[in-house]
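Weekly puzzle thread! Below is a chain. First person to post its structure in token form gets bragging rights.
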Amino acid sequence: MFDHGMELPEFASFPLVETDAGRAALRAYFGPYLEIARERGVGIVLDAPTWRANPDWGEKLGYSLEQLEEANRNAVAFMDELRAEADVLVCGCVGPRGDGYVPGELMSADEAEEYHSWQVGVFADAGVDLLSALTMNYVDEAIGIARAADKVNLPSVISFTVETDGRLPSGQPLREAVEQVDETTAGAPAYFMINCAHPTHFANVLEGKGAWKERIRGLRANASKMSHAELDEAEELDPANPEELAAEYLALRSKLPNLTVVGGCCGTDHRHIDAISRAWTQ
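Winning reply:
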């Protein structure tokens, strides 16, 4: 959306659904990805623009809980309009209660379940196909979201972000985080994903054997090799090289045998997804 010249207060994209200009920008944004899916003959998962549409961030943006519920429902309805354009799964996107890069005021798993159940319930009632918890930076919040989704029979995708050392911002190893969520929730998530990190940040922790790696089926990596701290201070996008990123995705294939959902995060756009999907399907 940066490339489309749209301002996103508090990094929230859900207000775009409320205006004609915002909806037009979202259609222009999603259009190339839908075309790539059609050209390759593959399905596509599209997240509703609701990563910041939880009560804490909504309050910062001046939304009452009633207005926020309507915003979440409208975002899902907007995604439903795109179903006719490709083989689309509509995903309700849940973000961290706090900052995506820094685990601040930590919740217990029970507190996280109680907090996120409100938005998860709205998504379930709105008829999304699945739920994604993106940029999870500590394990208890991820556990709470997975439990909340399981209680309303909604398939969930738990996506952790990692620092340049391959560990969660909380300091926990990625393997431990995946295994702890599965053990604590009886394997409730449909699968796990990694997002908002460059492949070079976590490739080393994927070495060796381990059933936990079979649970990682999605990857939305950054084009940029910058750390979270550097990205937080950046005033321009760092798109790096799409073909290089595609090659780095392919290099992970032998380490993540069940990797089938590929996308992008910071610095990526449709050029990167085109390169990745082209390399992946050849």
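Puzzle host: Confirmed. Bonus trivia for everyone else. The first strand starts at residue 44 and ends at 47.
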